[in-house]
Amino acid sequence: MSTSTADRNASTTARRSHAWRWVAVFALVTVLHWLAAQWFERHHTAQRVTPAHVPVQVRLLKTERIEQQAGPAAPAAPAAKPAAPARRAPPRRAPSPPHTLQALTPPEAHPKSPAEPAQAASNPAAPDAAASAASAASNASGTVQAAAPGNGSTPNAPAAQASHGVKFQVPPSGELEYDTFFNGARNAPGTIHWKSDGQHYEMVVSIPLPFVGTFSWTSHGHIDAFGLAPDQYIEKRGRRPADLTVFNRKEKQIVFTRTPNSLALPDGAQDRFSMVMQLASLVRGDPDTYKPGVTREFYVADNDSGEIWPITTIGDETVSTDHGYVTARHFMRLPRHDGDKRRIDVWLAPALGWLPVRLVQTEPNGTEVELLWHGALSVPKASDDSNAANAASAPAPSQAQQAQQAQQAQQAPQAPQAPTAATPTAPTPASGDATSATSPAPDIAPPADQTPQAPPQPAADAPMHP
């Protein structure tokens, strides 16, 4: 009987320990679920896209040429300092024939001091020479002033003017990191690589997906008269082969590797992701134009087709990110036809140089794919206009700057020149005079701080030599 009692006690103890084990498992599962809920609540910052109130269209913008400004003219080279006048050797006289007499004029003394009033009175040609020199200086000044509005190198060349068109400014290069969400669930971070030197660009959007691989979209090309001009668009989804879209500028054709069909290449055509940067460049060039209700049309080529996308401005909104709230301008693609449920929303932030702070694509079946700015791997500066990256939009120097450059060039010391107004004209020497008619005149120049004086008149009875 004692044996049966012991068996019953052991059975009761086993049942109690088994119950406590289940209680412990239940408590552990509850705690784990609570921790998972807290983590999800802390990290789940995705904002569901609500039906936006589309403002009434107030303006429709078509594809236009962008404003292209000539690069700044090369500044005028500073005037070289005049070299000290070298003493010229006395003119060599040709050997004279025998038994020939020559009349020689003694060399004139170099003036070392300003002429005295009596000397000026005795030399009536001096005032005329001074007036002539002043007139020549004023004419030279007028010539420089007239050349100031020019391009700084050629006096009479007209200043380069900007061509008429929409304002366009490429965003600064940047490497941005984004949190990625699929239907509100956070996935591994993605990146947007954007690089431009003002004449070429490259954009790579990369989103890693678990069990599938990395989705990437690559667009690279150049910048032409209509803005970004893609040369090739590459779309790769996980381990599937890449689909290419080629923009053949010579043949004016868009060809695909996914389909044998081809399309005509219109001016300003974009791919799915270069369109975002084209829009950012237009908004960056003239933000005040894109007010609520302003719609711009883009011709966008996908990996097998192309169509016009109407992008309308919704307005300025606040986007919540891990780094705080960011003010951005909301743009949305309008339905392209009846029953079009695909939607694309883009938020461009001035603090990021008008690069996207948020992108959301809503599929026809309701699936949402979102990129939300997480930080910058290389911070783009909103005020960085990238001189090399934006050579097409570099402003030309103003007329005031050109006039200042010309004035500085005018104030630079000029090479001394002999006065020409009062210099007597040398007659042609007679055949008996053996002095060469082409002998240079003596290099006599007044000091820089003195008024040019006319040389004294030679005696009337002495023959003049050049």
Automatic annotation (TrEMBL):
Q: Any transmembrane segments, and where?
A: 20-40
- Any single Pfam family the record assigns to this protein: DUF3108
Keywords, alphabetical: Membrane, Transmembrane, Transmembrane helix
Domain of life here?
Answer: Bacteria
Disordered, as annotated region: 69-165, 382-466
Low complexity composition-biased segments: 70-87, 115-141, 385-452
UniProt KW Transmembrane helix keyword: yes
Q: What is this protein called?
A: DUF3108 domain-containing protein
Annotated source species:
Paraburkholderia bannensis
